[in-house]
């Protein structure tokens, strides 16, 4: 039966139940047969909604879209190898989070929800705020005080109520959970509809590589919203008989905040408490990812790895990307830094997203450029 399924107690709720977690407190997944017909898909306009039968929004009139998706994939020479970069910084709000926001906010509109709350280190807040604005849904966004000014300006422009929370990213998450007691939680880590949007990353890679799966996906990971989405997408393709094998999923963390690396290396099944120090990779500074076990399970199941890179390595990768004409925010340089640092990861066709636009973090970017 289709619906929302609890990861902890296996309770199944109807697909249109406006809940973001199980009564037992567990995380919800979506059970839904994604239909993918290459002939139908190829005839449609180049947006992520070309996979319409694979997206669990029932009512076409509810779809909230900026015609997003089908971002280009570019092969880029890096040292002795080639990495295929998918330009996810080109979305309307400047990050891949628009994939998740498009499906989540469309679902919220279909359910008649009038107010949402979201917490974010910046980009997910931008995305939810923009799509809520287009949908006419009231929106409150909570961010840590340290969030880049460019992202704050964006959230304010979209008309969301913005709250800056002192302390760590975890303090912001706590404040959002409290607000979510009375408002629909449009969370990119809890709400399972977000991952039904980010999974279109995998569909597009498959289609753009000639209806074939690459051998590996290399991506920055904090809460895992793109990693989990990518896995779901490739799993859908495998279950539909369109590919034989799911690519290795390689998660790259910031060395200053790397709980998933600890989990992976030490064979743990729960996220250990880690000391989180500041990093220029603000997009993945997540000390307590709620879907941590799910992320590490995917890495293990697909034969991938978790690795980490430090700020100096990120800066070098960022500068290198700039010299190739690609201006992205520091977090987006993580896969490139890992590719350069760990040749042992190389093998077969490898795809990495450039997750966010450099214009979002101009202050940080200027500092990096000036020091060199
Ligand atoms: C959100 C984000 C990431 C990482 O996403 P997680 O869901 O935390 O794994 C990476 N890069 C950018 C630019 C982001 O906005
Ligand atoms: Zn449950």
Helix content: 25-40%
What's the helix count? 13
What CATH architecture of the largest domain do you see? 3-Layer(aba) Sandwich
| pLDDT < 50 stretches | none
Widest sheet, order of strands: 4-5-13-10-11-12
The CATH top-level class label of the largest domain: Alpha Beta
Could you tell me the radius of gyration in angstroms?
19 Å
> Bound compounds, please?
pyridoxal-5'-phosphate, zinc ion
Reported for the largest beta sheet, the result is: 6 strands, mixed
| Overall tally of structural domains | 2
Classification by helices and strands: alpha/beta
What form results from the Cα inertia axes? Answer: globular
β content, as a range?
15-25%
- Average pLDDT for all residues: 96
> Per CATH, what is the topology of the largest domain?
Rossmann fold
Order of helices and strands: EEEHEEHEHEHEHEHHEHEHHEHHEH
State the separation between the terminal residues, measured CA to CA.
Answer: 57 Å
């Amino acid at each position: 039966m289709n619906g929302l399924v609890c990861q902890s107690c296996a309770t199944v709720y109807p697909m249109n139940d406006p809940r973001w977690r199980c009564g037992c407190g567990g995380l919800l997944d979506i059970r839904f047969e994604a239909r993918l017909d290459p002939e139908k898909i190829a005839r449609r306009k180049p947006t992520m909604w070309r996979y319409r039968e694979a997206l669990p929004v029932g009512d076409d009139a509810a779809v909230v879209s900026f015609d997003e998706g089908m971002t280009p994939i570019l092969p880029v020479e890096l040292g002795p190898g080639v990495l295929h970069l998918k330009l996810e910084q080109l979305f309307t709000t400047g990050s891949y989070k628009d994939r998740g926001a498009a499906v989540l906010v469309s679902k919220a509109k279909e359910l008649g929800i009038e107010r949402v709350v979201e917490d974010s280190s910046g980009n997910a807040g931008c995305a939810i705020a923009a799509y809520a604005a287009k949908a006419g849904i009231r929106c409150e966004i909570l961010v840590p005080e340290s969030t880049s000014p460019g992202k704050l300006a964006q959230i304010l422009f979209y008309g969301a109520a913005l709250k800056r929370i002192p302390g760590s990213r975890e303090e912001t998450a706590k404040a959002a959970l409290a607000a979510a007691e009375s408002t629909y939680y449009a969370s990119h880590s809890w709400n399972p509809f977000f991952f039904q949007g980010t999974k279109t990353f995998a569909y597009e890679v498959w289609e753009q590589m000639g209806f074939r799966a690459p051998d590996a996906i290399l991506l920055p990971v904090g809460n895992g919203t793109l990693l989990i989405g990518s896995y779901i997408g490739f799993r859908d393709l495998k279950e539909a008989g369109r590919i034989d094998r799911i690519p290795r999923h390689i998660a790259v963390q910031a060395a200053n905040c790397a709980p998933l690396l600890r989990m992976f290396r030490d064979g743990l099944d729960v996220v250990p408490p880690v000391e989180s120090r500041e990093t220029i990779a603000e997009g993945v500074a997540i000390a307590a990812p709620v879907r941590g076990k799910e992320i590490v399970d995917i890495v293990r199941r697909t034969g991938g790895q978790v690795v980490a890179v430090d700020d100096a390595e990120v800066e070098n990768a960022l500068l290198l990307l700039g010299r190739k004409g690609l201006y992205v925010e520091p977090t987006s340089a993580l896969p490139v830094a890992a590719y350069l640092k760990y040749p042992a990861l190389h093998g077969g066709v490898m795809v990495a997203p450039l997750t966010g636009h450099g214009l979002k973090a101009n202050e940080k970017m200027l500092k990096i450029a000036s020091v060199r």
